Amino acid sequence: MTRNKKINSALIIIDVQNDFCTGGALAVKDGETIIESINTAQEEFDTVILTQDWHPKEHSSFASNHNAEVYSNVEMEYGSQILWPNHCIKGSVGANFHRNLNTDKCALIIRKGCNPKIDSYSAFFENDKNTTTGLEGYLIKKEITQLYMCGLAFDYCVFYSALDGKNLGFDVFVFQDLTKSIDLGNSKNIAEKKMHKAGIKLLNFM
Ligand code: VGL
Ligand code: ZN
User: Which residues line ligand 1 (CB under 6 A)?
Assistant: First the structure.
């Protein structure tokens, strides 16, 4: 199918990294199965942006740095934080983009979670909701008003990126069939409801 290129739009591909795919440290079930369609989706956009979870090994979101159970919660200065298995350690194979992902088209890679003291789910802000990644400024300078999001994981990094994008005034669309969820507790349903309520449009690409 040929479709018109989406103008004033960017495709933001969240965290399609080995550690979020089968065999990875924080594997999202069937994470890699969305990649081929994500590559197809890229053909419809002039602007493609990738994000890459990129943690130092002493990162405060790792359970191993707290002597705590994985998936338990701790209170940080910026609020509640889930403790994850060690994942996406900068420079490691797990932090690399999955080999099937076409990375040729993308002009900007946003790395996030680099500060050992603050986790960063969103492509826009760290979890303190204040420290910017610079992505907003990039999009404004490029006169991009519509954001289409996909990638891993739907209920964490895609969700927080979509909410922040919407709050910043962008039109936000999520290609839900180009995502997969971690689904901790009821996180997938909660994310869907909050996105609907915020006016984020959930679409299917295929
Ligand atoms: C993510 C948990 C921890 C994600 C990243 O990409 O959704 N989730 N770090
Ligand atoms: Zn992470």
Answer: 15, 20, 53, 84, 121, 152-153, 156-157
